[in-house]
Please model this.
Amino acid sequence: MTFVVVEGPEGAGKSTLVRWLGTTLRAAGREVLTVREPGGTPIAEAARKLALKSRHDRAFAAELFLFLAARADLVERVIRPALADGQIVIADRFGLSTIAYQVAGRGLPQADVEAALRIATGGLTPDLTIVLDIPVAVGRQRQQVAGKVKDRIEREDDAFHTRVREAYRSASGPGIIHIDASQSKKAVQDTAWRAVAATTGRALSLRGV
Ligand code: Z5A
Model:
């Protein structure tokens, strides 16, 4: 029914916001499915392990196709059925992550990646994409404080993560909004909520939740 994606660099607060939106929308009586990319099906979880945890060196194109394999399975087997069932689906990362990390970060050619992305998603695009913006150092510090073990991509240097951040900051198009994620959680949630309420087309009140 409505497909919402939360995007942004590491430590921006995506998972925190996805959890809060899910809880708040359910409290408002909506049926909600939250998913995290890569992952969410047995195939996608296996691809996640290979993409993020495996010690083996790989071609950047191989990394791309691991993320796309995960996405293809999640879209066909989980996201599309939930949307068809009338649910609101909120995803922690989607196609913009691939543009930010594999195109801006790794340097793969944008037009080719976009074509491959269309195959993986079957053309599914979000109704709303919330891009959280955070300076690289602040995101890293938040992850450190949270005790997160760095994955293969998080171990990349600051230049890589700065390219990723800039790709996110320059993202524009239908349904894409940007939020300064260095604000308090409440300020981020309030702005995100207004955008979600406008997109779902129903007056959702914050009172009582
Ligand atoms: N990847 C890719 O390369 N290509 C693709 O196509 C896809 C993914 C789909 C997935 O990692 C990796 O895969 C990712 C990109 C790559 N690697 N990197 N970088 P993941 O799923 O394990 O992790 P992540 O997506 O990077 O998320 P994260 O590091 O866990 O960050 P987050 O979800 O944005 O943040 P959080 O967990 O919600 O918050 C982090 C901490 O900050 C936590 O303690 C919160 O309480 C705190 N927080 C949150 N918001 C605030 C505010 N507003 N103020 C203060 N503190 C806050």
